[in-house]
Amino acid sequence: MGGVPARILVVDDEPGMREGCRRVLAAEGYEVECAADGLEGLEIFKAKRNFSAVLADLKMPRMGGMELAEEIRRLDEDVVLIVITAYATIETAVEATKRGAYGYVPKPFTPDEILLPVRNGLERRALALEAKRLREERERSLAALAGERSKTATIINCMTDGVIVVNAEQKLVLRNSAAARMLPAIAPLALPAPLSEARCPDIESVIDEIMAGAEPAIVSREIAIGDSTYMANASPVMEGGTKPLGVVAVLRDVTALKKLDIAKSMFVSMVAHEIKNPLAAIEGYLNAVLAGSVGGDAEKLRAILERCSVRARALRQMVLDLLNISAIQAGRFMLKRSRLDVKPLLVEAFENLRDKAAAKRISLSMERMPADGECEILGDRDAMLSVFGNLADNAIKYTPEGGCVSVAAARSGDFVLVSVRDTGIGIKPEDKARIFEEFYRVRNEFTSKVPGTGLGLALVKKLVEMHQGSVSVESAPGKGSVFTVSLPAVPPPDSSGKRIDSRSDPQPA
Ligand SMILES: Nc1ncnc2c1ncn2[C@@H]1O[C@H](COP(=O)(O)OP(=O)(O)OP(=O)(O)O)[C@@H](O)[C@H]1O
Ligand SMILES: [Mg+2]
Fold first, then answer.
1. Residue among 369, 431, 340, 368 at smallest CA distance from 394
2. Terminal-residue alpha carbon distance, the chain
3. Pairing of strands 171-175, 162-167
């Protein structure tokens, strides 16, 4: 017997019996405690709770062995109970086992007659305890495994990327919620289901490629499903061997990135196009001069150089717009604000576009112009020229030949309002909300022939907002448009040359 000695409780009202048992058991290496009747035995058992076996006489005062056996079994289902009695009958033996006793020893007995059932009982107890420990351990690890599994399943299900797993028989064995959203055909499928039922040939081909490959490889491919674009990254599931058990594919929604990518390449090609035309015109004019086609005609030469200058200025303005947009986006844009009269700025912006309007026979007029100094703002000159220039440029670009473009400016309370009106193609309500977005251009038959980057109004909005102002549009398709910029005004000078604040009440003279 190795390890900690087993503790045994001997309960008998006969002192001789108690002592006899104690001696025999102690000689075998057991630790023994004794009690003189059932009640005392029960109390000791309850107090110590560390007995492996209890030997109890059947007939005792206060509480007999049967009752004690029953009580002890209730407290400890593994303890070995052995009853001892002088009145041995089959009935009592059966009754004792019914009440939870392991064995039964008739009095008088030899040391071996008591030791044998004790040893066997303890051995059986040790086996039962070991089996119980193993059972509990298995249950614990099963519970842990189930917990891990459900944790993993929850994580996979909560992923924003779609995950699908396909086995070697081309059957879909797992899909998470994101995948069910991305591939609506797989949502209702009972798994496992043939991959063909996902109705996505692109995914099938990605998976085929991995399963058919001689070497395990990761395949990444962009696939289009409906209006969305996904990046599918698929890799083989290997577990020993050289053949994959299946394939796990992760789908990432790259629609927004794709759109940005397309917008950027369109932007680059538009910018290139926008730069190419005026450069070609300038080059053409200069070549004409160099080829001597002007001869000595100073007036003709001057007209050509002026045209070159106009085109070069427009080109410079466009490059400035681009630089401004990127500076604003990078948070590097600095306004150099000074007191500006809006009227001469509008005249300058319109003059820059006079040729462009004339080429389309569009009349360019300044209506309802304020008095000099009536509409002053605290603004950045170049930024304001860009705002008014862009609005006038759009008005000309999006008005068919022979139309009218006009500008009006007025003071309204604490604000200066500038409106650029055209008789052009107008804008649909659903586009009105988007034309101030970067790179957004309305697509229709008319605009497809109009070059542009879609940056003009985005820049206008950003610049106006940096001046604590706002820009709005009123328009209807076919009815023309009016873009109105509202900017905080600075007070106009009064007749005495002093400035008055329009917000304050008129002062008595
Ligand atoms: N006056 C207008 N009338 C009708 N549509 C307009 C008008 N102004 C702007 N739009 C629409 O709004 C879109 C965005 O205008 P925005 O000025 O930002 O870009 P763009 O003119 O296309 O290019 P860019 O100004 O950068 O050269 C235009 O493509 C056009 O469809
Ligand atoms: Mg524009």
1. 431
2. 121
3. antiparallel
For the stretch 126-138, pLDDT in tens is 998 999 899 988 8
Count how many Cα atoms sit within 13 Å of the Cα of residue 30 in the half-sphere of its side chain. Answer: 26
Exposure b/e, 288-313, CB count within 10 A at least 16 = b: eeeeeebeeeeeeeeebeeebebbee
User: How many angstroms is it from 356 CA to the middle of ligand 2?
Assistant: 14
What pLDDT shows up at residue 500? 39
The class level of CATH for 159-253 reads: alpha beta
Name the residues around ion ligand 2, CB cutoff 5 A.
394, 456
pLDDT digits (tens, 9 = 90+) for 472-497: 999 999 999 999 999 999 976 554 44
**Domain boundaries defined on the chain:** 7-133, 159-253, 257-334, 335-509
Give the fold, CATH level 3, of 257-334: Helix Hairpins (1.10.287)
- The answer to whether 2 touches 28, Cβ cutoff 8 Å, is no
Q: What confidence tens digit (pLDDT) does each residue in 131-180 have?
A: 989 998 888 887 887 788 888 888 888 999 999 999 989 999 999 999 99
Cα distances (Å, whole numbers) of residue 132 to 73, 336, 420, 424: 17, 84, 89, 89
Considering only CA atoms, which residue is closest to atom 12 of ligand 1? 435
CATH fold of 335-509:
Heat Shock Protein 90 (3.30.565)
**CA 457–ligand 1 middle distance (angstroms):** 7
Residue located nearest, by CA, to atom 8 of ligand 1 = 394
The second-level CATH assignment, the architecture, of 7-133 is 3-Layer(aba) Sandwich (3.40)
Ligand 1 centre to CA of 283 (Å) is 28
- Going along 360-400, which residue ranges are E strands? 363-367, 376-380
Which token pair is 141?
A: 């690890």
pTM: predicted TM-score of the whole model, two decimal places: 0.49
